[in-house]
Amino acid sequence: MAFIVWDEVYSTGIQSIDDQHKHLISLLNRMFEALLQKRGKEEVSYVIEEMNRYAEYHFQTEESLMERAGYSDLAEHRIFHDAFISKVNDFLFKYNQNDEALSAEVTIFLTNWLNEHLSTIDQKYVPALQNANIS
């Protein structure tokens, strides 16, 4: 059962970005399903590691497209990306400390990131990429 399904509110209209965002949704759904099945601790390591990989390739993709488009708020947008990376590092630390509440914390963080970052923050750069004919 999917916790969150892809919705056009998340769409940037840029296939590579949208595909990467869909992958993040799949991680959240995997974490949510694991919590329901009381396997959160087993899955949290995979999800955190994948969030780390995701941040590296996704943020690089997004930021390079914003640079190409001359997006004026790129520096501000990078602050959000840096905060995500910092949070993932915090999760890695907590995982190594055997934090019992980590599974729920990761799920809540990803849910908030999707609902705030994808549907609001990322939407701000879409016009700049469209104006630069980046699709």
Automatic annotation (TrEMBL):
Residues 12-129 form the Hemerythrin-like domain. InterPro entries: Haemerythrin_Fe_BS (IPR016131), Hemerythrin (IPR050669), Hemerythrin-like (IPR012312), Hemerythrin-like_sf (IPR035938), Hemerythrin_metal-bd (IPR012827). Pfam families: Hemerythrin (PF01814). One of its GO terms (molecular function) is metal ion binding. SUPFAM superfamilies: Hemerythrin-like. Keywords: Iron, Metal-binding. Belongs to the hemerythrin family. This is Hemerythrin-like, metal-binding protein. The lineage of its organism: Archaea, Methanobacteriati, Methanobacteriota, Stenosarchaea group, Methanomicrobia.
